Amino acid sequence: MNSSRSAFLLVTVGNIAVAGAQWYIVWLFAQQSGPTAVGHYSTLIAMMTPVFIASQLGLRNLFVTLQRTVRWRIYLGCRLSTVGLSVLIIVGLVILGPDQIDSSLAWPLLLIKVSDSIGDLFYARLQKTERLFAFGLILITVALVSVAAVTIVVVATGSPVAALWAAAAVSFGGTAVTMWTASARPPETASEVKCRTTVSNEIRALVSAGIPMSMMQAVYSLLSYVPLAVVAWFGSPEDVGRYASAAYLVVFANLVGASIETVVLPRFRAVYESDGALFLRTRVKRLCTIGLLALAPFVVLAVFIGPWLLSAVYGAGFELSRVSVLYLSLAAICTLPTYLASANLLVLNRYWATFFVGAAAIIAVLCGGGVAGAVGMPAVAAGSLAVLIGSAVRLIGEILCSKPRPDRFHTKPSTDGAPLGA
């Protein structure tokens, strides 16, 4: 138990360190060029992230949760193919897209996305075998080296673009270390090797599960960035920059939630296989309730110190209203339990359910944020309200969709490619 808590802590610190390194780049942009530069950077991130996630087929989570046997080389071949497709799409968008796209920022960001995508699949091997200490140490090391490299480059050149190239080099180095570490153990157990079917059957099984998983991850990625579009819709590039800077509160919540999901996925699967779907759902609901109650006091703290803290960190031009901070802090505490509810659905292999929940949340974000902006709410406040609406809809929807069917409270995993009852 102590080792599991230590592993969770290390992965959480690693994810927070990665988020901190990303925030540090945003802070550098803010210091060098102000809110407009932050807006350009955030726009590129919002453009690239959904493309990469949509084309990845959710292979990392599938490698951990899919209740059918698919050999490793098929996972790897699919990932390399989808990375190539993503690169083609992004290059086309940068070359043929509007003039507002800053190509000098786009190319190093594209290389970072390519590296992260390849490393992500090898992280799945560490996650499935619960080598979480190595997982967390790699995250922490890459984050610290990235911060150091970016700082040195900015001090030497004064160029944020050069800093992004340095971050790209560090990202590739981290991916190489991840591949080497993950390869220390075979990707499949002896029992999984025995359960292999034909390559064509395994590809069909992977793609049939990967399509809804990929669509789910794409809509959840869009869900993170659609509020940014609401701000851009009703506001200026400066508003986008101020919102993006403050929204890192929700980004941190997502990364801590990702740490939780990393740790609990293998364990939730074990609970499901031993005690059934109903027992698992009851445990998840209890954990979500405890999490919401425990985090509630932080909302009050954020409302009191948030506006001052943003001005102190970024400068006077980045101050937000207390209402906007309230919405963002509520969204953050709603975001954390969604990863428990999402892990429940993944273990049940209900990938389509997660997709429809995410799609409903996007519609709610657009409608809620659109109405708020149309009735005169400031652009940043409208975007902050939109992200709260999206987080709440996602949490409620995922809990509702995890309800076991009355005649199937437990379904044995399938290893022969047959459809799953769950």
Automatic annotation (TrEMBL):
Transmembrane intervals: 7-29, 41-59, 80-98, 132-156, 162-182, 243-266, 287-310, 325-348, 355-375, 381-401
Top-level taxon of the source organism: Bacteria
Topology class, membrane: Multi-pass membrane protein
Localization: Cell membrane
Keyword line: Cell membrane, Membrane, Transmembrane, Transmembrane helix
PANTHER family xref list: O-ANTIGEN TRANSPORTER-RELATED, PST FAMILY PREDICTED COLANIC ACID TRANSPORTER
The protein, known as: Lipopolysaccharide biosynthesis protein
